[in-house]
Structures are given as structure tokens and as C-alpha cells.
Amino acid sequence: MPTGTTPLTRLTRMTDTAPARTPTRVDAIAEDWVATLAQLDPEVAIYAGVPGPVETFADYSPEGTAGLAQAARAVLARLEVAEAVDAVDRVTIADLSSELRLHLELDDAGWTERDLNVIASPAQSIREIFDLLPTGTEADWHTIAVKLGNVPRALEGYAATLREGIRRGRTPARRQVERVLEQARQHSATEGFFGEFTASAALPQGELSAALHTELRRGAETAAAAYGAFADFLEQELAPAATETDAVGRELYALHSRRFLGATIDLDETYEWGIEELARMVEEQTRTADLILPGASVEEAIAHLERDPARKLHGREALRQWMQQLSDTAVEELSRTHFEIPEPVRRLECMIAPTAGGAIYYTGPTDDFSRPGRMWWSIPEGVDEFDTWREATTVYHEGVPGHHLQIGQAVYNREQLNSWRRLLAGTSGHAEGWALYAERLMEELGYLDDPADRLGMLDGQRMRAARVVLDIGVHLGKIHPETGAVWTSDDAFRFLHRHVNMNDGFIDFEVHRYLGWPGQAPSYKVGQRIWEQLRAETRTREGASYSDKAFHKRALDLGGVGLDTLRSALLD
Q1: Where does the pLDDT of residue 18 fall: very low under 50, low under 70, confident under 90, or very high at 90 and above?
Q2: What are the backbone angles phi and psi of residue 458, rounded to the nearest 5°?
């Protein structure tokens, strides 16, 4: 169990916002599911800070995935006969049942046997979980050493499942295999992640023992060799069998859309809306560019800002400090005005990630807040200069009122919600939709009044709108709005290049992400659309009594839920 976490049964009361709710039978089913997941998938235990065998990994083999499906069926059967005693129960039953059914549908469709992509498959998660392990004591580092030694088993089980996919003719696209192969080779290198991670092992005070240093070095060598063997499998077995087709088709795409939204949408209508939304973002960017440099195009305004030394940060530590200061200010000011932010949630740590992939992401607090919420910036090698006008909105997206407020509030609300609702429930559409909604809200509140900062926000919003069009277009074989022909994968690179102001390396990674992770990229903008619709509908219903602050609290107090569940809970 991670250092500093506390068993769920021993957690103390942390909120006085509402009377403690008496746990129900439905709560017990949900708690049992959290405990089951923590045993079957230690990543869950580590992320959430609940008891679990953190020295091991999930069983990624066909037997392991079958065991998880069997456990899901058992919980679903219990939910189907459980009676709700209140609104909290009704939400739990609706949302957990929906998630379990979708898991089983994806399992029946054979998704696990082809689940390999450049960003969010076991190939990445087996490595990335080390970022969340505590490192404050010798015991922590011993746990890490043992876990490093278990990497081979995890990757071997994963390879066995992918081999089953080869046997059944269910394989990922070749371009995904080729990119993951590159990642695996990097992890297998002596100077790769595992070697660097363990070589820098240290304690806040004192020194690690020589014996533990040796144990860590051997663990790193074992883990790196395992990624080398996995790379060999990808190169020699999976790549020759991989499909040349990137698009997954309407049926499978619809499942993934539901997975990432927690809602069923009209994919054709959403595609057309995406085209309209993209055009709207371009027009809004154009108007904002004129405020920065009269008569300038968007590209010219961006070039002007990139030459402005007053909007530059130099060095990673300068970036981290700037992020932390901006975040702290937002927390302090918004807690006095527009949001109720409990004391434990007010702590957010801005971090430079130990990897160099270029992603910016958020990890939630542990259940007892011993590990706070954290905003991570994975800075590519060689990048040492940063534009503040681009990133102000990023801090609001990842921090407050974005992901940190959303997820931290759910974790905090223990007196009303079971641990599944607080720690594990939710979808990308709910989370990322809220974060984009939060960006626009900060514009409404005056935090992006500087046209440069607003242009940075619109730059991201335009990209998210473009992704709706690109993702649905490619995977469903829709008609390209600019060429009039059916979308191809090659079109995706050209299309994104026209609509984002990023380097070619970023565009290359992003498009590969969309092609291998269908339905995820649109969930941001579609989720924002649904959040904004819900606020508008609530305002219309409540009239003069409506309050943004009350709406936000009511919505966030639900914890992470699918967007269909959110709509029902707020409006039905």
C-alpha cells in the first residue's frame, strides 16, 4: 500500500458541508467493486490511494482480462437487484451499471486483444505508474525495486493477449505498433527511464543503503530488458500481422464514444456541429488577433506574441514557479467569490514530469489527501523557453476551476459519496468537458481579458473543435469538409496542421493519438458542449433564482459521472 494512505474504513470525517449519509446496500456494492478493482489492478490502488498489492501489476493476459470481465458481470448482477433508497443510490446504480455494461460490450467486441496505441494502453501505463509511487522512505524505494522486477510478467501477459488478437484477426493498426515499438526501445535502453529513475533515487533526508541501490539497479535492468523483449515481440510478431487500416468503423467507434462521454450522441449531427464550431473558433480567433495587432491575421498575431520577451519564461524551474503562482492566485481568489473550495482541495502542486513526451496532465489526490492533486508538464528534450500567453488557460484547465477542483471536490465529498463515486467514476467527456468549460468560465470572469491570453485559450479551443471533425471523419469515413472526398488518415495530418499552431512533432504525435484512441479526442469539445447546454437549461428552468455558484456545487458534488447520468441528475 502506498505510504501515507489509509484504509477506507479508517478514514476520518473531512467535511462538514452536509450531514453524514448512512451507507446503503448500493454503496456496499460500489465499495466492494473498488476493493475488487484494487486487487485486480494495482494501478487503481496507487492512483486512488486505497489498499492494494502495489508491488505487482494487473494481469494483462487473456486469463486476467477474462477474470476482470467475470468480476464485472458479478457486480452488475448485484446492482440489477439492488433497490435505491435515495437519489445518491439512483445515480450510483445508473452510472456504475452503464460503465460495467460498456466494459462487457467492448470485451465482447475483442477490443482488449487489439488495445495498443501511442498514449493510453498497457504499453504506457506499466511504465507511467512509477510516476505516482511514493519515494519518501527506504520502504518506498524497496517497493519500487520489487515492482520493477514484476514488469516482465506484466508485459508478457499483455503480449499473450495481443497474440490472441493475432490468432483471431483482431490487431491494432500498423502505425500504432511502429510508434509503440519506438517507445519500448527507448524504455529498454540503459539510459532510458528505468535507469535514470533509479540512478536518481534519494531520500529527503539521509542516504539509501548500498544494498537498496543495488536492488534498484537490478530492478531497472530487469524492467528495461522486459521492454526490450516486448519490443522484439512488436517488431517480429505483431507488426507483420497488424492491419493497414486506421479507421475502426462506426460500430466500434460508437462504443468508444459512449466510453469516453458516458453519453450516447448522434455521431453524424456531432460531425456537422464540429464543422460549424471550428468555423466559429476561427472567426473568434481572427477578431482577437486584430485586438493584438490591428489588421493582423491569426498567424501574424501569434508571430508577434512569440517575439515578445515580456511573455517568455526561460528554464523549467521558471515555468514551474510561474504555474504555481498563477494556480495559487486562482485558488485564493475563486474560493472567495465563485466556488466553495474546501481547505484540502486548495493545495495543488505544479510539477515538471520526469518524462519528455510533451503532455500536460493532472493526477488527483489520494483518498486522504496525503498526496495532493498535481499538475504535470512533460517537457520535450531541448525545450527551455515557454510562452505565458499560451499557457495561462492551461493552468486553469488542469488546476482551478478545472480538473483539480472537479476531481478534488469529488474526493473530498466522502460523507455523501461512496469511494467508487469519489475516486474512480467519471468519463473523459465529464472531466475534459468540464475543464474546457472552466476555461470559458475564466474568460467570463475576466481572467483572460488580455487578448493575448484569450488568443491562447482560443488556440486550444480551435484544436479541440478540429479534433471533433478529424476523429469522427476518419473513423466513420465521412466526407471531408474541405476536399469533398472521403477522409483518409493522411488527410488528418494536413487538416490538423492547418488548425493548430504547433510544431510538426506535436502534430505527428497528436494524429497518431487520435487514430489509435478512437472517440477520446472529441470528448473534450463535445463534453464542453453538454456542460454548457446543462447550465443554459438549468438557468432557464430556475430563472431569477439561478446561481452559477449553486449550479457548480450541485454538479461537482455528484462526483465523476457519465454525461447522460449528469443530465438526469441535474434536470430530471
Answers
A1: low
A2: -65, -30
Residue 71 lies in a domain: yes
Q: Supply the mean pLDDT for the chain.
A: 93
User: For residue 116, is it within any domain?
Assistant: yes
User: Of all residues in the chain, what percent are helix, strand and coil, respectively (each to 5)?
Assistant: 65, 5, 30
Counted domains in the chain: 1
If you count DSSP H runs as helices and E runs as strands, how many of each does the chain have, helices first? Answer: 25, 5
β-pair partners for 314: 385
For 206-229, the pLDDT digits (tens) are 899 999 999 999 999 999 999 999
Residue 189 domain flag: yes
3-class DSSP assignment, residue 98:
helix
**What's the average model confidence in pLDDT over 56-63?**
98
Task: Note the Cα 122 to chain centre separation in Å.
Answer: 14
Structural domain harbouring 221 = 11-246
Distance CA 404, CA 402 (A): 6
525 falls within a domain = no
Secondary element (H or E) of residue 386:
strand 385-387
Residue 27 confidence class, pLDDT cut points 50, 70, 90: very high
Report whether pLDDT(95) > 80.
yes
Q: How many Å from the N-terminal Cα to the C-terminal Cα in the chain?
A: 41
Assess whether pLDDT exceeds 60 at residue 5: no
Kindly compute the dihedral angle of the four CA atoms of residues 315, 318, 319, 322, in this order, to the nearest 10 degrees.
Answer: -160
Alpha helices in 445-477 (DSSP H): 451-476
* Residues contacting residue 289 through CB under 8 Å, at least 6 positions apart: 296, 297, 298, 300, 301, 302, 455
pLDDT by residue (tens digit) across 334-369?
998 889 899 999 999 999 988 776 778 898 898 889
Query: Is the omega angle on the peptide bond into residue 152 within 30 degrees of 0, that is, cis?
Result: no
State the virtual CA torsion across 144, 186, 204, 374 in degrees, nearest 10: -90
Q: Is the pLDDT higher at 239 or at 357?
A: 239
What was the pLDDT predicted at 13? 29
- CA-CA distance, 385 to 314, in Å (whole number)? 5
243 backbone dihedrals φ, ψ, rounded to 5°: -80, 150
d(CA 77, CA 326): 47
Give the contacts of 130 (CB within 8 A, at least 6 positions apart): 144, 147, 193, 197
**Under the phi-then-psi rule, with left for phi > 0, alpha for psi from -120 to 50, and beta for the rest, what region is 526?**
alpha
209: left (phi over 0), alpha (psi -120 to 50) or beta: beta
CB of 388 within 8 A of CB of 322?
A: yes
pLDDT of 287 reads: 97
Nearest to 464 by CA among 430, 496, 489: 496
Task: Report the distance separating Cα 424 and Cα 40, nearest Å.
Answer: 14
Q: H or E element: which one contains 540? A: helix 522-542
- pLDDT bin (cut points 50, 70, 90) of residue 382 is confident
In the block, cell 504506457 appears at: 124
* Strand 312-314, strand 360-363: pairing: unpaired
